[in-house]
Amino acid sequence: MKLFRSLAGTLLCLGLLGHPLLMAQTIYDNDPMQRLPIGMQLSEYQQHLPTGGKVDKARICPPNWWVGMKNANLQLMIYDQNIHKCSVKIKYPGVKVLKVHAAENPNYLFIDLQISPSAKPGQMLISLCDAQKTYPYELRARERSPLRNQALSPADNMYLIMPDRFANGDPSNDSFKDMSSDLVNRDKIYFRHGGDIQGIIDRLDYLQDLGITAIWVMPVLESDQPYESYHGYAPTDPYNVDKRYGSNELYKQLVEKAHAKGIKVVMDIIHNHVGDRHWTIRDIPFKDWINQEWPTYTKSNYRDAVWIDPYVSEADRRRLANGWFDSHMPDLNQRNPFLANFLLYSNLWWMEYSGQDAFRIDTYFYPEQDFMINWGKRIQQEYPGFTFFAETWVQSTLSQAQFTAGNRLTEGQRFLPSVTDFQLNYALLEAAAGRQGWTDGANRIYLTLSNDFLYQDARRNVTFLDNHDVSRFLSVLNNDWQKYHAGLTALLTIRGLPCLYYGTEIGITGAGGSFGEAGRKDFLGGWKEDKLNKFTAAGRQGMEETTYQLLRKLLRYRKITPALQTGKTRHFIPEDGVYVYFRYDDSKRVMMLWNTTDKPQEHKLERYAEMLKGYRSGRDVIKEETVNLDVIRIEPFSLRVIELQ
């Protein structure tokens, strides 16, 4: 790290730092999977002590609040030089100081406020040390609109966007000299490429036409890290959008413009860790703000089973919860009540500021579960009916279901409506690949869905074929488009809230890296210098256009078919590699027949009489043709969607 900064400083003095040829010779190698600029070292683990450093910028968190919140309590955190012994005074009608807490670090004060329902919007003054330090603080009126905070439902068609790789709407914000890294290189997977919020706004019409009703946007908050900051999962400021993506106001505009087009917005948040350049880490409030019980760098064991294992050792449970995810991602200690409030209030602030519709919670099972439960309760108290879903990258349905609200496994109340359904993902991948066996392939789908009784409502689970952490679905299938189309059709017809990873509609490929990084490619056409524009029919070629049209047809059909959204499921044990399932409600019945083998099948339907009774024919939704309900031909690795008539 020091070597790299010394080299960069020398080049800057000579006026050569930005020279393309010299940059290529000194910073980049020939590997597209290069992780660090040449000369830079990975961050080293270090213990953080609350001794109090030089304050670079005074801060108040949250930066403002609102009157009329359901919970009258608010905890402010003030960060300024040597304020821990200061008295606090606030004179504002309806606002009462309940308690003041000094941190171990002299640069922090935590202030408990009570904001009466009678308090009016306006600007109050926070006075410290008999007005030696004063801070204006605004209380705002809450915005009331039926389009704000709409919540997700199984009726939605969701689309996962990595902002840095989707579209570059504003090239002027690609790089800033005052950030830890100003490198942009589209030939390198681990470096920034320049995509931003404006790029998403510019493509809302495209998403609306495709049939998307919700976008899950990967983290956009500031991630001012020296390397691997493009994905956003090492945040350094919870209240500010990374300026390479845009601004807070632009994010709010994204939400408003998306709402105007019938598209909801999901914010991606992290409770487990932050980047090591987060300002509360560089000058830490309390020693136990983060987990640092071991003198040397200690990784998490990443084992979800410790929360449900009846024989678990305390050492294993502690290692899961307190071990670090990565050396440059300090592990947060949610047992510290001030840290717990810091996380909660930042999430509430974004809900109220932007009007967004849901949260996706990263690495859900790593933090302290008492905190996660209380967090969910508090969010839903403030926003009744609001939904959020969590990443639970686990290895069994039992482990996955245990975190959800109303599950049949754990005692006590939980508040997590849904999870990313990795168990169904594994099953869908096996079936699409044509894997056969007593418990494999299509049979694994059957067995996985048979455990849905563990959830309060499995239809809320977010289903997917790939995402930013795994290989692209088409690459998993060795670029077999027939299998690919069958898997996509299954995703949009099986129970759950389906989520497509950006570029799935054109068959973006990629496999490799620790977390599927090789699949994090640019969506061509999102940059003005791109020669092909895959956002348009003219730019899509061959199977790209075929796949796009298939998905567009299925997404639009799902939008107008409640039976595929919230309808019931009836399925039959797979026979001869054919899996048949029905989605139905009082008004419509849809039959899916999936041939997961490499042989065509003339499939007889008498076995499904209980679901076909009273129906004389059907309409093939994809082929747009009428079929009889006697025998149906299914091509190898194909899935037919038949609306019964």
List the helices and strands and how they pair.
Blueprint: H1 2-13, H2 20-26, E1 59-61, E2 65-66, E3 73-79, E4 88-90, E5 95-102, E6 108-115, E7 122-128, E8 133-140, E9 158-161, H3 163-166, H4 197-202, H5 204-210, E10 214-217, H6 248-260, E11 264-270, H7 279-282, H8 314-322, H9 337-354, E12 358-362, H10 369-382, E13 387-390, H11 397-401, E14 418-419, H12 422-433, H13 442-449, E15 462-464, H14 473-476, H15 481-491, E16 497-501, H16 543-559, H17 562-565, E17 568-575, E18 578-584, E19 589-595, E20 601-604, H18 609-612, E21 617-620, E22 625-628, E23 631-634, E24 638-644
Parallel strand pairs: 2-8, 9-10, 9-16, 10-11, 11-12, 12-13, 13-14, 15-16
Antiparallel strand pairs: 1-3, 3-6, 4-7, 5-6, 7-8, 17-18, 18-19, 19-24, 20-23, 21-22, 21-24
Strand content: 15-25%
Assigned CATH architecture of the domain at 59-140? Sandwich
Mean pLDDT: 95
Structural class: alpha/beta
CATH fold label of the domain at 59-140: Immunoglobulin-like
Q: Give the overall shape.
A: globular
| Residue runs with pLDDT of under 50 for 5 or more positions | 1-19
The biggest sheet, with number of strands, parallel, antiparallel or mixed sense and barrel status, is: 8 strands, parallel
CATH class of the domain at 59-140: Mainly Beta
Distance between the termini: 67 Å
Can you count the beta strands?
Answer: 24
Figure out the total of helices.
Answer: 18
Describe this protein's structure.
By secondary structure, the protein is of the alpha/beta class. Among the domains are: 59-140, Immunoglobulins (Immunoglobulin-like, Sandwich), CATH 2.60.40; 566-644, Sandwich (Immunoglobulin-like). The strands form five sheets. An eight-stranded parallel β-sheet has the order 14-13-12-11-10-9-16-15. The chain has a six-stranded antiparallel β-sheet with strand order 17-18-19-24-21-22. The chain has a four-stranded antiparallel β-sheet with strand order 1-3-6-5, with helices on one face. α6 (248-260) links the parallel β10 (214-217) and β11. The chain starts with a helix and ends with a strand. The model is unreliable at 1-19 (pLDDT under 50).
